[in-house]
Amino acid sequence: MKAIQNSEQLLSVRIWRGKKDGRFVTYQVPVRDNQTVLDVVTEVQRLHEPGLSYRFACRVGVCGSCAMMVNGKPRWTCRTHVNKVIDEDVLTIEPLRNLPHIKDLVCDMAPFIDTWQKAGAPFSSTQTRSQPPAKVDPESPTRRAADASLQCINCGVCYSACDVVNWNRDYLGPAALNRAWTLVNDVRHSKRQQTFDMAFSEGGCGSCHSHGNCTRHCPIELSPSESIAGLKRLAFTGLPKEL
Amino acid sequence: MERRLFVVQRLTAMILAPLVIIHLGLILVAVRDGLTAAEILARTQGSVFWAIFYGLFVLVVAIHAPIGVRKVLKEWTELEDSTINSFCWMLALLLLVLGFRAVAAVV
Ligand code: SF4
Ligand code: SF4
Ligand code: FES
């Protein structure tokens, strides 16, 4: 328990409790070295407010389940250090924006996951199980384009950061379109044209305002706005042919 | 459909960019020493070049603007898609008619 006593200094944390008609409750938590926002939420839940609902799993930036609004900005809380985001000694933590709110810091991620399907996400292979794996040149332009946009952890931070999603829930949003971009560039995907058509349908990439707030907030530094710009370019040229 | 409109709007924007610059430049030159209707007509009448130039201008604007207005209305209003589409068709027609009338009047 030594770690719990390494500071006299207290941090004021305002956490949203309840549903839409809830309120902020302020808790005092000791300041600690290398403390993350998720550490703070966990400490509040363990020591002050056992009923506090929040999500996390890996605590090391892999699973994408811990995203919340921290001082007004969407962040992956397990990798966000308090001292990087604190504003005048106060930390305000709310559920992610743009998603239905369930309770405390928990949102319903279903609408976000649904957008992936609507943007043509399921991968469908050109090969059957009995065929040898497709050979893909790692240096080919399509593979490089796809590679640059992989590794999304589905955290929903970009979806929450996007103002177009905020005013139009039919917009597919940055993460789903980023995924569509990787599939359109994946020569092993048998439905590239279909994915492209879905990504460009009503509410698709034509609705993006290119203001890049998604890219600015993506914790693993992907660039959904660049992927969307790539899709828009393909509207002029058609899908890349080469293998 | 969305994709086609997107492409057409971008292509018309590319055509419009130089036309607008020439148009603005022309205004500056034309008003050099005061501007009268007679003076304008003296310059434009019988000019095939300006007739084609502004004819193209009108055509491209009538395509470009309604597509943009359609998108704005979709984003900012609760109107039905069919209402928005009809409105934009009318806007296109209006721009075409007014534009060509103006072109016809000065050539
Ligand atoms: S660039 Fe597009 S997807 Fe990204 S935040 Fe802006 S509108 Fe949303
Ligand atoms: S693109 Fe980035 S911000 Fe968006 S869901 Fe994926 S990892 Fe999160
Ligand atoms: S808890 Fe897994 S990414 Fe934060």
Task: Itemize the secondary structure elements and their pairings.
The complex is a heterodimer of chains A (243) and B (107).
Chain A: E1 10-17, E2 23-30, H1 37-47, E3 67-70, E4 73-76, H2 82-85, E5 90-94, E6 101-103, E7 106-107, H3 110-118, H4 141-149, H5 157-161, H6 163-167, H7 174-184, H8 192-199, H9 213-217, H10 224-237
Parallel strand pairs in A: 1-5
Antiparallel strand pairs in A: 1-2, 3-4, 3-5, 6-7
Helix pairs in contact in A: 3-7, 4-7, 7-8, 7-10
Chain B: H1 2-30, H2 37-44, H3 48-76, H4 81-106
Helix pairs in contact in B: 1-3, 3-4
Bound molecules: iron/sulfur cluster (2 copies) and FE2/S2 (inorganic) cluster.
Question: What can you see in these coordinates?
Answer:
The complex is a heterodimer of chains A (243) and B (107). Chain A has 243 residues and is of the alpha+beta class. Chain A has helices spanning 37-47, 82-85, 110-118, 141-149, 157-161, 163-167, 174-184, 192-199, 213-217, 224-237; strands spanning 10-17, 23-30, 67-70, 73-76, 90-94, 101-103, 106-107. In chain A, strands 2-1-5-3-4 form a five-stranded mixed β-sheet. In chain A, strands 6-7 form a two-stranded antiparallel ribbon. Chain B has one domain: Fumarate reductase/succinate dehydrogenase, transmembrane subunit (3 helical TM bundles of succinate and fumarate reductases), CATH 1.20.1300.10. Helix content of chain B is 86%, strand content 0%. Chain B has helices spanning 2-30, 37-44, 48-76, 81-106. Chain A binds chain B through residues 167-168, 197, 200-202, 204, 206-207, 232, 235-236, and chain B through 2-3, 5-7, 10, 71, 75. FE2/S2 (inorganic) cluster binds at residues 56-59, 61-66, 76, 78 of chain A. Residues 161-162, 164, 174, 208-214, 224-225, 228 of chain A line the site of one iron/sulfur cluster.
